[in-house]
Design brief:
It is globular, with a radius of gyration of 23 Å. It has 18 helices and 25 strands. The mean pLDDT is 96. The protein is of the alpha/beta class. Strands 1, 2, 3, 4, 5, 18, 23, 24 and 25 form a nine-stranded mixed beta sheet that branches. 32% of the residues lie in helices and 21% in strands. The chain has three domains: 90 residues, Urease, subunit C, domain 1, CATH 2.30.40.10; 318 residues, Metal-dependent hydrolases (TIM Barrel); 100 residues, no CATH class.
Length: 572
């Protein structure tokens, strides 16, 4: 007898084919049958009127630390995610020498906005090699499967020490060989790939650029040769892609004979550069290489709240003088003291943050409820304020003080130069793109794009009014089979016999994102912005129900993925 039969659902199977009303039969953690009139199961779910999809496979997260302490893997588990991959952008926590943990924490804090206090409290560092780190990850049962990649920053610092973080220094031939040996072993131990960052946006908390930024061809080639020897893994890079950097990374992929995956976003200072990068990806694919562009399903949105990391007054001396009061007390004082508010507005510092905010407020919006991820330009705080004859910063402060300081403003930081999501539409519709910049676990006081799999469906498949919508089967494919096969996870991402029973049952008509909020649930009482969803009726990982009616069931069937996963079982 089948363990579970899901009956009468609109099965959108992940391949890109249109949905069909069908039953899905599950036994021993795998899909056994798909069709009509299946035999009874030990448990039956009537999914009539609902969407049945593979579980979301999120290949770009930063749960490197959180995965060692959080079995629930929130907030991704609230959004139908059943597999996550982390170690992206060249940052992570292994390999690490005893006594040098502080640098990796400092690097992660700066690049991914995860506070030092959280990481210092939450991370045990009961490991040295990357294989040791994987062993620690393997010990914790969790709500989903996880896979890890070798970060360039940690690898370089392990071999070179402080010289690895100084960009006037280059590794010796012996050091390149040592890095390659460590990478090769990590891939054999189960790393899904190697990641690096070549963007000037990425800096450690102490201001130093990320270690991989200046890695030259000999270093990249040495690491690529290690991947060729291993015959395993994906190369992932976050880069500004200026001055031929895509060509440099393509060279590494050609030497390695391994897939390459690059992040693709639109930036304000070079709004058409992404097209050059995508053209490079397309040409590489035409030349026979395995290359994908990881794209978002919405703008990269900075969430501004008086309880978060960034808001218009974050560097104001009067605001920082109240830092010892804590968020609640500081907000209450500001709300009750009109003179303090006037001083905050009148005496704004002329620092870099203030200059950036003067520009940013022109494209900053009240997020509202329901949330709107494609706000019209005329709704910006600056335009609304001017229409009322008010200072935009005064209006921003009034809005942020609402709901006891829990109100949130949205600043579409990237992918929004034209004031809409037309660029994102182009990126999504590329034949060589996959969903991949959700950043779950990162920028915890700035964004909550871990909810992107949900908005992928609601925005593009149902609600969009400022442009065309996209077919459901296309959207589901982009977040399931397409993402899974990017990392060689051939056993998931499709609803068909023989695949893992990672499945979502979704009330598509009722699916929605709730308003983001600030929680104080990280180690050391650290804060993060979270966002929940409504409409995930059931989520199954290997046939075990981990979410029911949007709530965690407490089941922990997930584990560690060691390397690529073959269809039918086994690793490659």
């Amino acid at each position: 007898m089948l363990d579970l039969v899901i009956r009468n659902g609109n099965v959108v199977d992940g391949t890109g084919r249109p949905g069909l009303i069908s039953d899905v039969g599950i036994a021993a953690g795998y899909i056994r049958e798909v069709g009509r009139g299946l035999a009874p199961g030990k448990r039956e779910i009537d999914a009539a009127g609902h969407l049945v999809t593979p579980g979301w496979v999120d290949i770009h997260t930063h749960y490197d630390g959180q995965a060692t302490w959080d079995a629930a893997m929130t907030p991704s588990s609230w959004h139908g995610v059943t597999t996550t991959v982390f170690g992206n952008c060249g940052v992570g926590f292994a390999p690490v020498r005893k006594g040098s943990e502080g640098y990796l924490i400092n690097l992660m804090e700066g690049v991914e906005d995860i506070p030092e206090t959280v990481l210092a409290e939450g991370l045990s560092f009961d490991w040295e090699s990357f294989g040791d780190y994987l062993n620690v990850l393997e010990q914790l049962p969790r709500s989903m499967d996880v896979g890890a990649q070798v970060p360039h920053g940690a690898l370089r610092f392990y071999v070179m020490g402080e010289r690895g973080a100084i960009h006037s220094e280059t590794p010796s031939d012996a050091e390149i060989e040592q890095m390659g040996t460590l990478l090769e072993q990590a891939l054999h131990d189960g790393a899904l790939g190697f990641t690096t960052s070549r963007t000037t946006k990425h800096r450690a908390a102490d201001g130093r650029p990320t270690p991989g930024l200046s890695a030259a061809e000999p270093e990249l080639a040495g690491l690529a040769r290690a991947m060729k020897r291993a015959g395993k893994g994906v190369i992932e890079v976050n880069s500004d892609f200026g001055a031929g950097d895509f060509t440099r990374m393509r060279m590494a992929a050609e030497i390695a004979g391994r897939p390459l995956s690059v992040l693709l976003v639109q930036v304000d200072n070079a709004p058409d550069l992404w097209r050059e990068t995508l053209a490079g990806v397309d040409q590489a694919v035409a030349d026979g290489l395995e290359v994908t562009a990881q794209v978002g399903s919405r703008a990269i949105g900075v969430l501004m709240t008086l309880r978060g990391t960034v808001h218009p007054f974050a560097t104001h001396p009067l605001w920082n003088e109240m830092s010892t009061l804590g968020d609640d007390a500081r907000i209450q004082r500001l709300a009750s003291d009109a003179g303090l508010r006037e001083s905050l507005l009148r005496d704004r510092p002329d620092d870099e943050h203030g200059k950036w905010m003067t520009r940013a407020i022109e494209r900053t919006f009240e997020l509202g409820d329901p949330v709107d991820y494609e706000p019209a330009p005329q709704r910006s705080i600056a335009r609304l304020a001017r229409s009322l004859g008010r200072d935009p910063f005064d209006l921003a402060l009034e809005l942020m003080l609402r709901d006891n300081g829990n109100s949130i403003l949205l600043h579409p930081f990237e992918n929004y130069c034209s004031g809409d999501l037309s660029v994102v539409e182009e990126m999504l519709c590329s034949a060589n793109s996959v969903c991949g910049v959700a950043d779950g676990g990162a920028h915890v006081g700035l964004i909550c794009d871990a909810s992107s799999p949900t908005s992928l469906l609601t925005l593009w498949g149902r609600d969009r009014t400022r442009g065309r919508r996209l077919p459901l089967e296309f959207l589901v494919h982009k977040q399931t089979q397409a993402t899974a096969r990017t990392y060689g996870l051939w056993d998931r991402g499709v609803i068909a016999p023989g695949y893992r029973a990672d499945i979502n049952i979704i009330d598509f008509a009722g699916l929605c994102l709730e308003k983001p909020y600030v929680a104080y649930d990280l180690p050391a009482g650290g804060r993060r912005i979270l966002q929940r969803a409504k409409g995930y009726l059931n989520t199954f990982v290997a046939g075990v129900e981990v979410t029911a009616d949007d709530e965690d069931t407490g089941a922990r069937p997930g584990g560690l993925l060691r390397g690529a996963q073959l269809f039918g079982g086994g690793t490659a």
